[in-house]
Amino acid sequence: MTKNVRVRFAPSPTGPLHIGGVRTALFNYLFAKKHNGTLILRIEDTDQNRYVEGAEQYIIDALNWCGMPFDEGPGTNEKFGPYRQSERKPLYKAYAEELINSGNAYYAFDTSEALDAHRKDHEAKGKTFIYNWHNRLKLSNSLSLSAEEVKAKLDAGEDYVIRFKSPQDETLHLTDIIRGDIKIDTNILDDKVLFKSDGMPTYHLANIVDDHLMKISHVIRGEEWLPSLALHFQLYQAFGWDAPEFAHLPLILKPTGKGKLSKRDGDKLGFPVFPLQWTDPKTNDISRGYKEDGYFADAMVNFLAFLGWNPGTEQEIFTLEELVTAFDLKKVNKSGARFDPDKIKWFNHHYMQEQNNYELAEAFKNYNSKLAETDINYIEMVVALIKERATFVSDFWDLSHFFFVAPTAYDEKASKKSLKEGTDTIMNQLIAILNANTDFTVETLTTEIKGWITTNDIGFGKVMMPLRLALVGALQGPDVFDIIYMIGKAETVKRIERIVQTL
Fold first, then answer.
1. Where does ATP bind (predicted)?
2. Which of 67, 70, 392, 480 is the most core-located residue (most Cβ within 10 A)?
């Protein structure tokens, strides 16, 4: 690719960043890094009524946690700043007026009451009200009014908006990297508002102006913006600017595959839809985050990459660097991608095995107050034995509690299966072997005890099942000899003696 690649992730600070937004940021990041380009973060806060305190910092924190820091944006490498649209407000009015002067836009003075009356009138007739070529000369705007009337309204300070003048009887030929060629009949387009009566631009105008001024080469965004492509393309034409290349990503669908994934789906089915935990500043309601739920950032990123993209191979596990190398927008699907909560757990289980045991031990110790006085090196050894069965750090205690405290009860079904007539005699013989052992290693224990079982033709089940029950309280856990070695001779004998006493 010869052109200088500059892409932008442009969220609105109206609350926590949805997982769909993270996927959009990821695809922008991968594309930028693939082509030695630049990822820009732009905060699109033109709608001040929906602005939420803390949302911008949340977005930045989420990108950093995912390992996708932006190259340019608020407070970072501000070559084309400012990067908050609210701070770029003086720019937009001039561009809106430029469109008026070129005949591509016009002032509209229609009140909300008048427009509402038109809508209701159309509904009563079974029609849909669209403000465009077929009725704009009948409405209150600078196309239907004389120049003197328009000047009088402006001088009087009447509220107005600036609308784009959508052309009549034309066919737009658009190209999308993912969706191919698109044809649009301009007669079905409405005259969108570009500039509002409160002095702020709408998303459409601000978006185009900022993308042009920030030299954006590719616009990679969600499918929900596809209906806006015609207007945005026409705005580039109206200004006489080269348009960037567009790529509209497929929707992320509910686990059922029907409809767009929402927070409600996560709440209903028990999984987060936000990367980080979010506390609503107004209600103090807390929304779960993948980080706080125990997911690794690498697992979430790997999972998100496959929501709409496929490398064309059987490989599923990718580091971020490998994703950069493999990523291609032409391999992104058009159809929606179903969100599978079990699949992201599968990824997390894999990445659990890749984690450093010492760091996992620290996380385990911090997570469970019962381990406050336990040596971190011992916890690390335990983690190495049990993480193979874990998906989250929160799973560790259930998988390893017997390494730290003796069982106080025994699983009923396991007891019936393990404790038979003569078990007490066998267990007492085992105690004698353990007490006589001077080389207390896993290898020696395995050799001596298995040798004793074989020599005496006892049957492994008669020894190993009650032994495991004594150590764990159930017929589960890692290798018995690893457990014996970890808890030590004295504790092992003590636990076997206890189960003998219960017999």
1. 263
2. 70
> Per the annotation, does 263 bind a ligand?
yes
Interval 2-18: pLDDT, tens: 679 999 999 999 999 99
Q: Confirm if 333 and 312 have CB atoms less than 8 A apart.
A: no
CA distance 376 to 488: 17
1-73+250-354 and 412-502, same CATH topology: no
For the domain bounded by 412-502, which CATH number is listed?
A: 1.10.10.350
**Residue spans per domain, the chain:** 1-73+250-354, 90-195, 355-395, 412-502
Helix (H, G, I), strand (E, B), or coil: what is residue 296? coil
Radius of gyration of the chain (CA): 33
Rounded to whole angstroms, how far apart are CA atoms 276 and 279? Answer: 10
Which residues does 264 contact at the CB level (< 8 Å), separation at least 6?
Answer: none
Residue that the structure tokens 């200088």 belong to: 4
Q: Which of 89, 263, 450, 494 is catalytic?
A: 263
Q: Token pair for residue 220?
A: 């990679």
263 is catalytic: yes
pLDDT digits (tens, 9 = 90+) for 158-217: 999 999 999 999 999 999 999 999 999 999 999 999 999 888 899 899 999 999 999 999
From 355, 365, 363, 341, select the one nearest 387 (Cα to Cα): 355
Q: Tokens 């430029």 label which residue?
A: 98
CATH code of the domain occupying 1-73+250-354: 3.40.50.620
Instruction: Write out the two tokens for 481.
Output: 């000899």
**CA angle at residue 371 from 367 to 376, to 5 degrees?**
95
